[in-house]
């Protein structure tokens, strides 16, 4: 095409000269004249014209092609824009979102894996510790077993029998009443006069919850200690039958068939008075009858044997010889400060403390109590004032 352009410039004068075809005859033969040049150039006119035509067509083609290309480019631009706007863009952004989501999932899973690894290693540590403890225990178990609690060697039918056999100090003893199927452990209080008391109940710090069900009261609960530092309810513990368990105090409590009825026919005077005999609160003429405990059956929240329309044991949170309901309530809720109010009493708002109403009013909860059993023979033998007074000497002022 470079040659073709050169041709265009050369042929412009030729075309002009070709308007004078006759001059070739006038101008000389040897030295090329203008006409000669023109004539010489004329011979190429046809080729040049053809070249020009060809060139023009080429140019036109190029122009057409350029136009088409422009259209194509425009179209492509449009397509690109619309594609970006439409499916492609959406697709790619969806893919992006998916990728992000996967990345997040991967990160979360990596975190989980990390946490699990930590858990595994902490578990491994703990297992190691447990193995060590287990090894220590195994070593200990290989040593001959020694009871760390001192249990006195003398045994008897009850604590008085034990005292009669020569025991002089309080502590843990085995007793086996004649009808009991097996011996069981009790705390015996033995005083300097050789009197033995079987401790039935001990309250001293509120460490044991006395809101227990029938079976628990039947089996006993809390903790026995050789130095009288713990709280418990021993009654019926490891004994199928209360009368078998306590033959020498058979008038105190009945058998389970009779719901462990309290038969408390005696009380020798003490500072605390006899709350078991009921109390006239001044609310109702029948107060004393309604609150005496003598002859009452034992009740727990799941065994209502009281003489009240409702459930005294449930309302007052204890197991006790409920009437409707009580003047004495030694299995009541422990209140650290002693004094308490209806608000403190919780859901039911009744006097649910450790109460001995002939000594303190019903809104004072005793801080220490002990219930002890003594043989009936000792009462009838006389001279038991001090012992029973101790029974009444509950708590503090
Ligand atoms: Ca009832």
TrEMBL record:
Phylogenetic placement of the source organism: Eukaryota, Metazoa, Chordata, Craniata, Vertebrata
Keywords tagged on the record: Blood coagulation, Calcium, Coiled coil, Disulfide bond, Glycoprotein, Hemostasis, Metal-binding, Secreted, Signal
Gene that encodes it: fgg
Protein name as annotated: Fibrinogen gamma chain
Signal peptide stretch: 1-19
Gene Ontology cellular component annotations, sorted alphabetically: fibrinogen complex
GO molecular function: extracellular matrix structural constituent; metal ion binding; protein-macromolecule adaptor activity; signaling receptor binding
InterPro entries with a match to the protein in the record: FIB_ANG-like, Fibrinogen-like_C, Fibrinogen_a/b/g_C_1, Fibrinogen_a/b/g_C_dom, Fibrinogen_a/b/g_coil_dom, Fibrinogen_CS
Subcellular location: Secreted
UniProt keyword Signal present: yes
GO biological process, one term: positive regulation of heterotypic cell-cell adhesion
Boundaries of every Fibrinogen C-terminal domain copy: 150-377
CDD domains the UniProt entry points to: FReD
Assembly notes: Heterohexamer; disulfide linked. Contains 2 sets of 3 non-identical chains (alpha, beta and gamma). The 2 heterotrimers are in head to head conformation with the N-termini in a small central domain.
Chief place of localization: secreted
PROSITE patterns in the record: FIBRINOGEN_C_1, FIBRINOGEN_C_2
SUPFAM superfamilies xrefs: Fibrinogen C-terminal domain-like, Fibrinogen coiled-coil and central regions
């Amino acid at each position: 095409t470079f040659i073709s352009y050169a041709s265009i410039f050369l042929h412009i004068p030729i075309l002009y000269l070709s308007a004078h075809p006759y001059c070739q005859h006038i101008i000389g033969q040897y030295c090329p004249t203008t006409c000669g040049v023109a004539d010489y150039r004329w011979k190429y006119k046809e080729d040049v014209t053809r070249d020009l035509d060809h060139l023009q067509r080429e140019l036109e083609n190029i122009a057409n092609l350029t136009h088409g290309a422009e259209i194509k480019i425009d179209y492509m631009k449009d397509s690109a824009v619309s594609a970006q706007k439409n499916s492609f863009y959406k697709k790619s952004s969806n893919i992006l979102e998916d990728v992000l989501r996967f990345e997040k999932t991967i990160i979360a899973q990596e975190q989980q894996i990390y946490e699990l690894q930590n858990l595994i290693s902490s578990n491994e540590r703990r297992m190691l510790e447990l193995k060590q403890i287990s090894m220590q225990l195994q070593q200990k178990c290989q040593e001959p077993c020694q009871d760390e609690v001192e249990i006195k060697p003398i045994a008897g039918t009850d604590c008085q029998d034990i005292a009669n056999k020569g025991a002089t100090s309080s502590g843990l003893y085995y007793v086996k009443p004649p009808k009991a199927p097996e011996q069981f452990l009790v705390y015996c209080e033995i005083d300097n006069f050789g009197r033995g008391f079987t401790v039935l109940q001990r309250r001293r710090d509120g460490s044991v919850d006395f809101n227990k069900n029938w079976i628990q009261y039947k089996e006993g609960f809390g903790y026995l200690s050789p130095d009288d530092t713990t709280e418990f309810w021993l009654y019926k513990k490891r004994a199928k039958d209360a009368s078998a368990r306590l033959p020498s105090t058979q008038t105190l409590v009945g058998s389970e068939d009779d719901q462990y009825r309290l038969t408390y026919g005696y009380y020798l005077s003490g500072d605390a008075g006899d709350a078991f005999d009921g109390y006239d609160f001044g609310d109702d003429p029948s107060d004393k009858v309604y609150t005496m405990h003598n002859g009452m059956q034992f009740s727990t929240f799941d065994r209502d044997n009281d003489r009240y329309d409702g459930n005294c044991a449930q309302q007052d949170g204890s197991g006790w010889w409920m009437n409707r309901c009580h003047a004495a309530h030694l299995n009541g809720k422990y209140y650290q400060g002693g004094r308490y109010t209806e608000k403190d009493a919780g859901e039911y708002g009744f006097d649910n403390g450790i109460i001995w109403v002939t000594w303190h009013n019903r809104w004072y909860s005793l801080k220490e109590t002990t219930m002890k059993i003594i043989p009936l023979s000792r009462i009838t033998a006389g001279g038991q004032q001090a012992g029973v007074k101790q029974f009444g000497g509950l708590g503090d002022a």
